[in-house]
């Protein structure tokens, strides 16, 4: 949809910095925006011409503004900037369009207190850390005030064990396994190469740069499929080994 630059006819939908001419799909979109009180943020900011367009016609080589960010008219004041980033590697013939916004999130009121942080019990297998924990816990318990009822003494012991364990073993972090992160050393160079070739194709489009970009893109896709397949096969083997050995912690 090409919405054009007719701010006078669509004052609530378009700003003063639109691009090109409106087509039929653009008219339908503007009618929809006018009915629902929406605004197209791309046309409200005076940026460079290359930062307003996001797609180049393959035959005419003319740039057009096809990728739009739409927001409610009442929230338009929250948008600080909308522009195109041609250097972003999106693996598409369309360039990335982003909006910079200033938001005021609502405060979240929690109905219950959060629990204590969890201890990284995997480090208890290290002999040096286990010995250090025993020594520090003994020192803390020796400094525990005498007397008091059983409930108070239990509270002191519980807090001493938890605080000492947190100090020695640290906090447990939730690790989300991801096949891309596990193979980042292999994939990152290929992705950077594809990005450089893509930028070269955008700067000087030709049959040579197009073929180089297609080759780099197919290389990244091939490596990604191979790395993902190897990762999931290794994960399946690890799960099967843990099941065979009765290791429920892995």
Structure notes:
- With 250 residues, the chain is mostly helical.
- The protein has 3 domains: 24-101, no CATH class; 123-169, no CATH class; 179-245.
- Helices cover 44% and strands 9% of the residues.
- It has 6 helices and 6 strands, in the order αββββββααααα.
- The protein has helices at residues 24-35, 127-142, 150-169, 179-182, 184-203, 207-245; strands spanning 38-40, 55-56, 63-64, 70-72, 79-85, 96-101.
- It has a two-stranded antiparallel ribbon. Strands 2-3 form a two-stranded antiparallel sheet.
- A hairpin with a 6-residue loop joins β2 (55-56) and β3.
- α2 packs antiparallel against α3 (150-169) and α5 runs antiparallel to α6 (207-245).
- The longest helix has 39 residues, at 207-245.
- It starts with 23 loop residues before the first helix and ends in a 5-residue tail after the last helix.
What's the helix and strand layout?
Elements lengths: L23 H12 L2 E3 L14 E2 L6 E2 L5 E3 L6 E7 L10 E6 L25 H16 L7 H20 L9 H4 L1 H20 L3 H39 L5
Antiparallel strand pairs: 1-4, 2-3, 5-6
Protein name: Craniofacial development protein 2
Organism: Chelydra serpentina (Snapping turtle)
Strand percentage, roughly?
Answer: 5-15%
State the end-to-end CA separation.
52 Å
The strand line-up of the biggest sheet is 1-4
Order of helices and strands: HEEEEEEHHHHH
The structural domain count equals: 3
Any idea what the shape is? elongated
The number of distinct helices, counting runs of at least 4 residues, comes to: 6
Q: Total strand count, please? A: 6
Indicate the percent of residues in helices.
40-55%
- Give a short account of the largest sheet: 2 strands, antiparallel
Poorly predicted ranges (pLDDT <50, ≥5 residues)? none
Please state the structural category.
Answer: mainly alpha
Q: Roughly how many Å is the radius of gyration?
A: 29 Å
Q: Please, what is the average pLDDT?
A: 87
Organism: Chelydra serpentina
Protein name: Craniofacial development protein 2
InterPro entries: Endo/exonu/phosph_ase_sf, Swc5/CFDP1/2
């Amino acid at each position: 949809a090409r919405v054009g630059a007719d701010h006078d006819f669509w004052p609530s939908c378009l700003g003063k910095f639109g691009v090109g001419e409106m087509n039929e799909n653009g008219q339908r979109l503007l009618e929809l925006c006018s009915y629902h009180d929406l605004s197209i943020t791309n046309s409200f900011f005076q940026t460079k011409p290359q930062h307003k367009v996001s797609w180049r016609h393959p035959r005419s080589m003319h740039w057009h503004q096809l990728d739009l960010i739409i927001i409610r008219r009442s929230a338009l004041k929250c948008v600080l900037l909308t522009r195109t980033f041609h250097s972003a590697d999106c693996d598409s013939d369309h360039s990335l369009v982003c909006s910079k916004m200033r938001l005021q999130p609502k405060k979240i009121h929690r109905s219950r207190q959060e629990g204590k942080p969890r201890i990284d019990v995997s480090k208890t297998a290290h002999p040096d850390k286990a010995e250090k924990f025993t020594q520090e816990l003994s020192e803390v318990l020796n400094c525990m005030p005498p007397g008091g009822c059983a409930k108070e003494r239990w509270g002191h012991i519980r807090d001493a064990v938890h605080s000492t364990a947190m100090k020695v073993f640290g906090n447990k972090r939730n690790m989300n396994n991801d096949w891309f992160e596990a193979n980042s050393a292999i994939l990152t160079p290929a992705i950077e190469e594809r990005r450089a070739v893509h930028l070269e194709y955008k700067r000087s489009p030709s049959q040579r740069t197009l073929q180089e970009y297609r080759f780099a893109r197919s290389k990244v896709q091939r490596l990604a499929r191979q790395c993902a397949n190897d990762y999931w096969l290794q994960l399946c083997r690890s799960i099967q080994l843990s099941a065979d050995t009765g290791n429920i912690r892995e």
